[in-house]
Give the backbone structure.
Amino acid sequence: MIKSSLLAIGLLLFCPVAFAASTATQYDTDTKLMLHMDGTDASTTFTDSSSVAKTGTAKGGAQIDTAVYKFVTAGGLFDGTGDYVTFSDSTDWDLGTGAFTIDFWYKSSDSAGIEGLFGQAVDGTNFWGMSCAFNDGECYIRYYNAGAADVSTTFTVTQDTDWHHWAVTKSGTSIRLFKDGGLLGTVTDASSFGTLAANFDVGRCMHLSSEVDYTTTGSLDEFRFVKGTAVWTANFTAPAAAYTQVSVRGRVRVIQ
C-alpha cells in the first residue's frame, strides 16, 4: 500500500503536464490551419503554422503586407479582385456534426460591399462558408448541399474600416457568430458541415445559391481553423496578441 501511494505521488509530481487544446490564446493539434500572415512585404507565401503545415496557393494579387496588420509585423492583403488563398481538399475540412471554431481578424476596405471570407465550393449549389453583405448589414453562415439550404443563417452586423475580431463556433447543435468577443446570435442546426470535395479558401466564399464567388476586400490576420473544439460559447475578450502554439512542459516538485 505504501509503495502504491508513493508511486502515485511520483507520477503526479514528475509526469509532464500537457496544456489544453486550442484556447483563446493558444493553438494545438486540433488547429488544422493557422495563418499568422507574417513574412516579407509583397510575398505570396502564406505559411501555415499548424502541426499539419498545409501549403497554400495565393490567387490574384493576394500577398503579405507589412504596412497594414493587426499583430507582429505583417498581415494578408486582399484587394477584392480575385484575391484569396486556397488549400487543397483534406479530411481536415470535414467537420461533420462536431464542434469547430473559425476565427480571424479582419479590416475591411469596403465596409458597404459584399465580402466572401472563407469556405469550400464545388459550384453554386454545393458550398459552405461565411460571407457578409455589409451593404445590407448582414453576415451569413451557409451550408448548401445539392441546392438544399441545410444551414442558411443570417446575422445582423455593422462594419467599418477598423480591425475587428470575428469568430464562428459550433458546439452541439448551436452555431454562434461573434464580433470583437460579443455574441451576435445563436442558431440551432444539426446539419453536417464541410463534407465537400473541394479546396478550402481563405478570403473567398460563395455568397448566395447559384451566385459567383465573392472575395475579401481588405486585410486579414491570425486566421485559425479549429476542428473538434468550440473555443467560445459566450461573450469573451478578443485576443490581445498573436496566437502561440501550445507546448508540453514537465513540472517537477521537490519534496523535502
Remarks:
- The chain has one helix and 21 strands.
- Helices lie at 2-14.
- The chain has one domain: 19-245.
- Residues 1-19, 248-256 have pLDDT under 50 and may be disordered.
